[in-house]
Amino acid sequence: MDRRKLVVVLFPLLCLLVSVAVAFNVSTLTFDEGFTPLFGDERLVRSADGRRVLLYLDQYSGSGFISSSMYQYGLFSALMKLPADYTAGVVIAFYTSNGDVFERTHDELDFEFLGNVQGKQWRIQTNVYGNGSTSRGREERYFLSFDPTADFHRYSIVWTARNIIFYVDDVPIREVRRSAAMGGDYPSKPMSLYATIWDASSWATAGGTYKVDYAYAPFVAEYDGLALLGCRADPLREAPFDDDSCDDDDATLAATGLGDMTPDRLRSMLAFRERYMTYSFCYDALRYPTPFPDCRVVESERARFRENGHARPRPPPVLAQRRRVRRRRGVARAAAQ
User: Fold this and answer.
1) Is 112 a catalytic site residue?
2) Closest by Cα among 192, 177, 174, 54 to 124
3) Per-residue pLDDT tens listing for the chain (337 residues)
């Protein structure tokens, strides 16, 4: 039986067997309640209850869907499970954008999942673009503490008038705070939510060294627990809202507390970034000699990065342990003197 047909046959059973990775206190939607197909035709497969979506990439096309409305600030969230085995060149994206409406001045907030050769980890990239600022890319990349192909995990973007927070499960991994110095680079126009899978062989893995290998196709990205919370907005209204039309929706979003960077969340975020961040535009002095005004430089982070913004390789665990022992011995000797 064709692999795609086999997955479609087993799909209802899989929906009963796979458990949700993490509790979530915001109501989720069926596909028809909040989304519409974007491209890929039969490569987008929905479960019988409309709550789970499979997106396929094969040698003919990728696939994707889009929210039925645009939003002026909001919470955008989904449980996702990524394809395993060889995924070089494959990009799975979960992001907000208004590029179809504002082609030259678009805003965008991205989770991009970058595939890899077999046995290597998936990487996540987050992007923040405002008012067409793609030439001033605010990109960061990370590894994860878990295998994103083994089970579902929740990925969320919280976008408010004062800050943007990216979450993996309940851990914030990045915050961007709005400031006057940031100006139009802070996304401020209504955006739609997108989910896509596509062939990015030209750049996604080792700068395009490794391409998509369709012997492993179809590549399947699974989405569940879709959540949209925010103020539905007129896509042709470019100016920021200055009336009370979104007050109730903004209050509902604020009530989740997910836009608040509490001390506990800040500690969790810094710990994640210390361990798993592999690239930051804030430490890329070659690309950006003058730091961005929204960069909050953390010295413990900076020490891990080269001048090109990429993290220095960590020593193997045994070597790291030896170094720690040598440092302790050196401190003891100095104290004895």
Assistant:
1) yes
2) 174
3) 454 444 444 444 344 333 333 445 778 999 999 999 999 999 999 999 999 999 999 999 999 999 999 999 999 999 999 999 999 999 999 999 999 999 899 999 999 999 999 889 899 999 999 999 888 889 999 999 999 999 999 999 999 999 999 999 999 999 999 999 999 999 999 999 999 999 999 999 988 999 999 999 999 999 999 999 999 987 665 545 555 778 888 899 999 999 999 999 999 999 999 999 999 999 999 999 998 988 988 888 888 999 999 999 875 544 445 555 566 666 566 566 6
* 274 catalytically annotated: no
Point out the catalytic residue in the list 33, 108, 238, 301. 108
**Distance between CA 199 and CA 222 in Å, rounded?**
17
Report the alpha-carbon distance of residue 35 to residue 28 in Å, rounded.
Answer: 12
**Residue that the structure tokens 């094969």 belong to:** 58
Return d(Cα 209, Cα 58) in angstroms, integer.
20
Helix (H) or strand (E) run with residue 199 in it: strand 192-199
Out of 42, 112, 274, 307, which one is annotated catalytic?
112
